[in-house]
Specification:
By secondary structure, the chain is of the alpha/beta class. An eight-stranded parallel sheet has the order 2-3-4-5-6-7-8-9. Strand 7, helix 6 and strand 8 form a beta-alpha-beta unit. Helix 5 runs parallel beside helix 6. N-carbamoyl-L-aspartate (NCD) binds next to loops.
């Protein structure tokens, strides 16, 4: 097969940033029908006023429908969330970044304190607002010791399990799932699903960290970190399974090259390659029929949206990923890609 047309995809998790960094990347997302725009800015998007202003900014320059991943923070209250959902139902999801686990999560709520915010989750359950979780924990709560990065998602499994039990009807999605343990948990609860980033299909822990656990390739550093073969194989199998619980979300997270190298910022800017990488991935696994459900159907169904009407077309044609794009080092820089989006 040399060409393939599929229904227009959605990106259910992307960091569009603000200011010049946002201007550098935002046009790349016009290929999607809907994009969940994460609100983990330095000043987190966590109230109605900030959501409206961030969303209007994005809307003024794009073709896709922005859905804001508004942050659950220590400033969140039930009253604020009632106002948000009254006005913006279907245009806002709730994003939970536990305190301290990743970029701009300082105002996030620690796992043990999440119960104090249960009235908001009850509202989300009643009103069918998806609750998106960055499922990691960075410290052992008994000893206070830092958990190695590779073990942080698995360590969060009991917390996610408790939440799944406490809110049987809540739409809970585990963002960028990266471990076998989390895949297994998702399979055992009807209210859990998992989005998969190409980052965890393409990269391995040993491409990023040495044997002592020291980071040596910051350009492949994103959170949750790439895993070793055992976990990577589970993510690949979940993507290829065709199970509707697993669907695409890029987690494209650009940082300027200088910032990334100086401050070791986590986040892979994969927006240049996501769809063509996934087309290649499904083609090479003789599973091209699973490509469209993975990128264009299962996520929309999970969140209760109609499928997009448009189609996009790919052609088998090689091109090389640039080494630098508007000051950002792209994921897969220098790699030869086998498919191209042509219309
Ligand atoms: C994201 C970012 O830079 O905003 N980084 C990342 O490594 N994925 C935050 C996040 O989703 O963890």
């Amino acid at each position: 097969m040399t060409e393939i047309s599929i229904r227009q995809p959605d990106d259910w998790h992307a960091h569009l940033r603000i200011g010049s960094l946002s201007e550098s990347v935002i046009d790349l997302f016009n290929v999607y029908g809907r994009v969940v725009c994460m609100g983990n800015l330095a000043d987190p998007i966590d109230n109605l006023h900030k959501i409206i202003s961030y969303r209007s900014n994005i809307l003024s320059s794009v073709d896709f429908l922005p859905i804001i991943g508004a942050m659950l923070t220590k400033n969140s209250t039930l009253e604020k969330w009632i106002k948000i959902t009254n006005l913006l139902y279907g245009r806002v999801f709730i994003k939970y970044l536990p305190e301290g686990v990743t970029t701009n999560s300082e105002s996030g709520i620690a796992w043990p304190e999440l119960e104090n915010y249960y009235p908001i989750l009850e509202l989300a359950q009643d009103r069918r607002i998806p609750f998106l979780i960055h499922a990691e924990i960075d410290r052992d709560l008994k000893t206070g010791e830092l958990i190695p990065e590779i073990a942080r998602e698995k360590a969060a499994v009991p917390y996610v399990e408790k939440l799944a039990r406490d809110f049987p009807e809540l739409i809970i999605n585990i963002e960028h799932v990266s471990t076998r343990a989390m895949v297994d948990l998702i399979m055992t609860h009807d209210n859990l699903s998992g989005s998969i980033s190409p980052n965890h299909l393409a990269h391995r822990y040993e491409d990023v960290f040495d044997e002592q656990g020291n980071l040596f390739n910051v350009h492949k550093y994103f959170k949750p970190v790439a895993k070793a073969k055992y976990d990577q194989a589970a993510i690949i199998a979940a993507a290829l399974s065709g199970d509707k619980k697993f669907f695409f979300a890029s987690d494209s997270a650009p940082h300027y090259q200088a910032d990334k190298e100086k401050f070791q910022k986590a986040g892979a800017f994969n927006a240049l390659t996501n769809l063509t990488y996934l087309c290649e991935f499904f083609a090479e696994h003789n599973a091209l029929e699973k490509f469209e459900p993975f990128v264009s159907e299962s996520g929309a169904r999970r969140y209760g949206f109609p499928l997009n009407d448009r189609t996009i077309k790919f052609r088998r044609e090689t091109w090389t990923v640039s080494l630098i794009y508007r000051g950002i080092v792209p994921d897969l820089a220098g790699r030869i890609m086998k498919w191209k989006v042509i219309e």
